[in-house]
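Quick board copy: two proteins, each given as sequence then tokens.
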Amino acid sequence: MGPMTLVAYRVLFGLLFGIAVILIQREKMPRTLKAWTPLLVLGLTNVAIPFFLISWGEKTIDSGVASILDATVPLFTIVVAHFLLHDDKMTVQKVVGLLIGFAGVVVLMSKDIGSSAGSLLGQGAVILASAFYAGSSIYARKFTEDTPGIFRSMGPLVSATAVMWLASFFFEAPVKVPDQSIIWIALLWLGILGSGVAFVMVFYLIHEIGPTRTTMVTYLFPLGGVTLGVIFLHETLTWEIVVGAALILASLVVANWSSKES
């Protein structure tokens, strides 16, 4: 299954999960183009475009490099948010926290970086995806404040699903239908949890604690990956994992303290 087809299935199942929640909660759907416009834009800038850039970029760069570059999201966010949002300003504590966390990701993933960092275009694609994520979180904070919570997260999946399926049929035709149950389970897992439940949480946090602190979740992605590898795949617990994890957790503490004090 190609990366675009994988993403297409993922966002489709995330959207179906959201529709089910909306029907159960009997939420009223936004009826104006003004209300839908930012949601459809976010489907492109926060889902379709970065998903494609990361999938394409990781064809030519090491996973460790990709994890480090993906962790630049909060670094982009804190700079842009400082100038565009009145309640998410840059502070010394926030900057220190972000830099500690980024250092933790570098240490954590250093053992997985090969002798070559890979294609410069591949690296650029992942960095550009990070910039899209950062900009999207700030855009969501500014323009979806009056949108009901479930639609903040599910609305973007409408345009993302349409774009990714069109891209799949155009670039990866013929689109493959999985023929193994384990693949369907994986797709449902990614869709319902990764693009359904997770999107609900992320867009809620963007409005509750701000884009900078919310995007620090990218520091936890590689930490979760290597930790699960140690537990379930019996991978070796190295000093890089221990030191990297300590730095990442310390960064979260520092950033949260600074936000409360400010």
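And the next:
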Amino acid sequence: MAFSVVSKKSAKTYFLHKRETKRADGGITTLYYFAGEAKDGAIDSLPDGYMTIEHERTGLPMLKKK
């Protein structure tokens, strides 16, 4: 089951996803994002060293380093 967060403002459920992209210099960047549906790339837990917060104005969840 994918990691999910319920927005306090809108009461919508958001699922955490992970995607790795290749940079022009050959390195790899890991992107974490929340989406309204659990699709390919959904992950089961928070990455180490991160916590979830909610944007005060929009109610959207975000990751923040501890």
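Board note added afterward: Residues 4-65 form one domain.
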